[in-house]
Each structure stands twice: as structure tokens, then as C-alpha cells.
Amino acid sequence: MMNWNEIEDYAKHWIREAGERIRDSFQTKLVVESKSNPDDLVTNMDKETEQFFIEKIHETFPSHQILGEEGLGDKLQSLKGITWIIDPIDGTMNFVHQQRNFAISVAVYEDGVGQIGLIYDVVHDELYHARKGQGAYLNSTKIEPLGDVPLEKAIVAINATWVTENRRIDPKILIPIVNAVRGTRSYGSAALELAYLVTGRIDVYITMRLSPWDFAAGVVLLNEVGGVITTLEGEPLNFLKENSIFVARPNLHKEIFTKFLKRK
Ligand code: 2AM
Ligand code: CA
Predict the structure, then answer these.
(1) Which of 38, 81, 214, 220 has its CA 20 to 30 A from that of 240?
(2) Which domain holds residue 129?
(3) Which of 70, 90, 100, 206 to mutate to test the pocket of ligand 1 (most atoms within 8 A of CB)?
């Protein structure tokens, strides 16, 4: 029998320790580089934080595999067995430019099923955490299940990129959603946007390209409060590649999908 309490205790301990290291790094100079394009940033702290988790996990749970954004973990062929899915800094651009609005995202999956989800807002020292079937928490406070909110009172997290000319979606599909709701926000960290949905601070989140490490922990948290997460086509997420993302309170997922997203 897997001791999930033990794995959760280690994961929480490590994420807080990693957060402390990131807070300490504000005193020293960051090394910032670009990855796929000049706006796709990575810093020494992204890599050092991922390496920190890898060393701890290998030492403590040698049979577990690790999928990390910076690629320092394993090359995954499948999600069989126990897999840690880690984004050492989600919202790297915010980390570099603002030193806030970023998070560490850590999830533990067993045979493709999310068992532990942790999102740590390092600057606010706020840990969003969930274990499958045991509810979601913000630090020690239990988070209530998501109730209904009418469309006209909803706040939608969406980046302006997706409602202007772009390569991934016709903006004409999303503009009517923006017009129908109360307001929009964009925080620049998918993990925090998912955590804000879990806590009811936003009601819908739409984005065109996230990787498994951006959403793996958020999915575990969302499942505990009844949030619905699919691709924009209404399909289940694939944890081995990039996905479009449509997350919402249950009533809003249904209504927005039917009115605006479903192929007629
Ligand atoms: P990151 O900071 O870990 O790269 C920004 O809107 C959000 O989208 C962040 O959570 C960011 O994660 C993520 N993101 C940015 N570029 C991405 C890409 N090319 N593929 C997947 N996710 C990306
Ligand atoms: Ca990242």
C-alpha cells in the first residue's frame, strides 16, 4: 500500500522549502535567458528549484518518475506508476519583472490519476493543497465547493492575446464571451489562475496552450471543489502534451460551451 500521507508530508515540506529559497533569491542577481523565443524566459532559479525537487524525490522515492518543465527529470513515455509533475516557477515572466504573481506547482499522479495537488504562492506564503477525495485547502482553511454564478456576473481570466489576431484561435469565437460577462482578468500564471478558480475569485479561465506541469496540480484541486476542466473542444486533457484549457464553475462550463464554443 502506498503511504500517501507520507508522500504528501514530504511534498508540502519541500514546496515550502523551495519557496523560501526563491524568496531568499530576491537578494541576489538573477540570470535570465530565453528559451523558444525572446519572451519565453527561464532563470537560474527555475532550474535550481526543479533540481532541488529532483534530488529530494530521487533520494526519498527512487521508484517515482518526474516530469518537470525544465526537462531535468525523466523523459516520460506514459503516466504508469507514480509520477511527480512539477513547474518550479509558473509565471516566470512575472517572477522576472514583478517578483510576484508566480507559483510553484507540484502534483503527484498514480497511473494517470491525480492524488496530490499543491500550488504555492511563494510571495504570499499561501499553499493551496488537495488530496483526492479529501477536499481542497488554502493553508489550513477548507475551500468550499463551487456554486453557480450567472454568466452576467462572471469574471473570466483570459489573456488579451486570444481576443486579438493570433495563430491559435479565431478571436471572433471568444469576443462574445468577453462581452457577455462582468469582467476579465489576466494574471500571467496558469497555476495561480487555477487556484483563483478553486477559491472562487474568478469563475472561468480560458487559455490556448498549457503544458501538463502548468495544470496538473490545479486539476487535483479543481476536482475537489467541483470545477470542470476540459479543452476548448470540451475534450478531456492529455497529460503528455500541450492542451487548450477551458475551466469554469459547473453551470458556467455548460452554458459557455453550449452558447459560444460548441461547433454548431
Ligand atoms: P510558465 O511561466 O511556467 O512558462 C502565462 O500566460 C502562463 O502560460 C504561465 O503559466 C506560463 O507558464 C504558461 N505558458 C507560457 N508559455 C507557454 C508555452 N509556450 N506553453 C505552455 N505554457 C506556457
Ligand atoms: Ca515554469
Answers:
(1) 38
(2) 4-142
(3) 90
